[in-house]
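REQUEST ID: PR-0412
SUBMITTED BY: lab tech R.K.
PRIORITY: routine
TASK: structure prediction, single protein chain
INPUT:
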Amino acid sequence: MTQAKAFLSWSTRDPRIEPLAQLFRQWMSSLFEGRVNYFFSREIAPGEHTVPSIYRALNEADFGFIFLSQRTARSPWVIYESGCLNPSLRAGKVFPLLFDLSPGELRQLCPPLADFQAVSLRNVQDVRRLTEKLSQLLGLDDTEVIEMREKFHRTFPQLERAIADTVDSKRLLPDHFTGVLTYNDNIAGSRNFQMPGIFEQYRRDLFLVGNNLNFLLNLHNNEETFSALLDSLIADPSKRIRILIADLWDEKILYTYNKVIFGSAMSEFSGLDDVLTHHESHLYLDRFIARRAGNEIHHRLRKQLKIKKIGLLVDTFWFVDPDNTELSGDLLFALMTAVTGRERPVFYVNQAENPGLFSKYFDMCQAAFDLSADVLWPVTGKEPG
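STATUS: complete
OUTPUT:
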């Protein structure tokens, strides 16, 4: 029996993809025993000795699988390989396998790849149609098709669970696209950026800087977000969160900011004095934390949570796990260069891929935090009763 040749392509920009591709190959091999010989692709530097073998495999492939995530859909290497596959294969034999994005999102991110028959790996009907198509391409007879369907029914739940576990255990920030984003449409609805879930989801260090952080402490309107932040610290004594917020509750600065950015003077941050300066208020921050955490944990939180203020309008930055030694940090930042808040662009930077850009902003924010003498919490002096 002659084996068909399949080429599997992905980008190492997303570390979740390779183990998933390995798992998918094993699963497909169990469905089509001995029918397919798989060639694995990896991103490599130009001139390495594996280039000729990859080029040969691309030309010899009977069909191709292109593993895509929101971070890799624009990968030059993946686009190159899919381009090589396209002219060498007849229509219907190149399959983008979507990990954490929809066909519609793929069309926005990389229109050329959207012309292929995209398959969402988290959609059982999509994957079933893929296996039926492969059964035809491989020339399976009726008995073999029935056996394949029985195996599919028995084993797909295992693949489905493995995919879900990979998404949940190694989330990347953000989960909607990379590059330039529309704040309201994408970031606000993103599972990985959404308040207050981000504090529970990220068990690592967080460093939040900028103008749009005042709502975290607006306990008049919403205690849920800051409570989620505290709960994540209470649950993990090793976790650290630092916050540097712009002093926007000052009415003169707030009026100017709202007028310039939003076109109207709003009072979203009214009441923050009760939280940050009025010691007798029941919403006073230190009293609120002590009441929610209890005395023993309240003392521990003083080492885990640092909040300072700065009297400047500052772009908003979210640093997640800013570990300079491991190069594992993620950064979202929103620039104050928009006609309205709805049009504000939000950018995503990964420390491993953009160390210079990441360090530029992190070092600037770190310096501002270190130099600021205006500590909002932990407070000094007598503990609130």
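NOTES: The longest strand covers residues 4-9.
REVIEWED BY: pending
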